[in-house]
Amino acid sequence: MSIVHLPGLKKMIEEISQTHNLPKSAVQQALREALLKGYERFRRAQRMDRFHFDEEYFDNFEVDLDVEEEGFRVLSTKTIVEEVGNTDHHIALREVQEVASEAQLGDSVVLDVTPDQGEFGRMAAIQTKQVLSQKLRDQQRKLIQEEFEELEGTVLQARVLRFERQSVILALSSGFGQPEVEAELPKREQLPNDNYRINSTFKVFLKKVREGPHRGPQLIVSRASAGLVVYLFANEVPEIEDEVVRIVAVAREANPPSRHVGPRTKIAVDTLERDVDPVGACIGARGSRIQVVVNELRGEKIDVIRWSPDPSTYIANALSPARVDQVLLINPEGRQAHVLVAEDQLSLAIGKEGQNVRLAARLTGWKIDIKDGAKYDYEAEHRKIEALQATASEVSAPLDDEEEDLDILDRDHTDDSELQLEDSTLEEE
Question: DSSP string spanning 287-336?
């Protein structure tokens, strides 16, 4: 088999590998693709103005790179036919049977079509060099994308680079040649109390990694995700890292619907250790631990509450700091509850513009109606419940498969500000 020699090939691959911080296999693959493009240029120059090469014409060609011999060969996979229509894609049966008598029509053979050393041409070499540079960049982007895909759902340190419309463009560190990779922090993922100045640093939650059209992977990061709160607590509270305390659920409203209401988070924690207070562990001595989290979130209000398997207790805890007198589970199947509080606790239980009860409902998964305990009519409410149950039983009918699937999808859907966790494992519903 003939070979086109490339003196210094082995050393060149090693140097490129070190310079671009790429594996040698990635460099070799880029070089194969570049040499194939150079061969295409060589063939097109041979048949200029006499033949049309479509985009798929060279799909049956490949380059065999021989690092030890410091050269390459061009191989072509051809189909065995009776009459040859295209010598690049076909070979005659009688010609193959001279070498391999068992060959049959329709079989494929791989042939060496490497051009002579002097024929490859200066233009083909230039084309190879240009394509190699592009392929190396593509390989680097691919590895960077794979790197960040593995980091999706984690928290990273980021530095502010610039502003584009309402988005903040941040720099994240990468281990593959490129010292920094750009990430976008959209307006909806920003915190209202953050002050984004050039070169200021923030912890961000890597929300999504997309394949960018030109400049490598497109990274979408968030400061409003509930995952950021989980990370900050896990990083600050040793009991969470040691799995003594677990975070069961998080409900966060980082961008409230009204500017008069500040960001707020409710987090439910639990433990299996009798001697451990999970809420106290998260708050720390004199609030030292929770203050670190609050400072990172620029003053966001955080309520840490104790999770309970009993819905009534859990709902009462979730409405903290309001004092709850009684929780009535009026419709357990529909997860509806009436919460009775004293008159002076009504505004506190509901919260500013309904924020406290809204977050409690998201945290527990129950529809919560706050009622004044002194004015609550037990008999009237009982009659309403009975009437609703009777109506529901009359009109209820089995869901068909499609409706049942839609119902499951609807119940399973939550936004990014609500997380339910088990065994300290973060799972977005």
Answer: GHHHHHHHHHTTS-EEEEEE--SSHHHHHHHHTTTSPPSEEEEEETTTTE
Q: Cα-flanking dihedrals φ and ψ of residue 352, to 5°?
A: -65, 120
CA atoms within 13 A of residue 403's CA, in its CB half-sphere: 4
pLDDT tens column, 81-91: 888 888 889 99
Distance (Å) of CA 137 to CA 2, 134, 170, 171 = 30, 5, 21, 19
**Are domains 4-140 and 226-383+410-428 of this chain identical in fold?**
no
Q: What is the dotted CATH code of the domain comprising 151-222?
A: 2.40.50.140
Query: Where do the domains of the chain lie?
Result: 4-140, 151-222, 226-383+410-428
- Sheet of 367-372: strand order equals 326-331, 336-341, 367-372
Which residue has 């995700």 as its token pair? 225
Taking the CA atoms of the chain, what radius of gyration do you get in angstroms?
33
- Whole-number Cα distances in Å, 269 to 13, 214, 308, 318: 54, 44, 9, 11
Pairing of the two strands 245-253 and 264-271: antiparallel
Q: Determine how β-strand 218-222 pairs with β-strand 180-185.
A: parallel
CA distance 317 to 324: 8
Enter the tokens of residue 214. Answer: 């030109």
CA 85 to chain centre: 50
> Is 4-140 CATH 3.30.1480.10?
yes
Confidence of residue 178 (pLDDT cuts 50, 70, 90): low
Q: What is the pLDDT of residues 20-66, one digit of tens each?
A: 778 888 888 888 888 888 888 888 777 655 567 777 888 899 999 88
* pLDDT recorded at residue 279: 96
Q: pLDDT tens digits, residue range 307-359?
A: 999 999 999 999 999 999 999 998 888 899 999 999 999 999 999 999 999 99
Instruction: Confirm or reject CATH 3.30.300.20 for domain 226-383+410-428, answering yes or no.
Output: yes
Percent of the chain with pLDDT over 90: 45
Q: What is the mean pLDDT of the chain?
A: 84
| pLDDT at 53 (0 to 100) | 76
321: preceding bond cis by omega (within 30 degrees):
yes
pTM, two decimals, is 0.68
Spatial distance between the Cα atoms of 66 and 84, rounded to a whole number of angstroms: 31
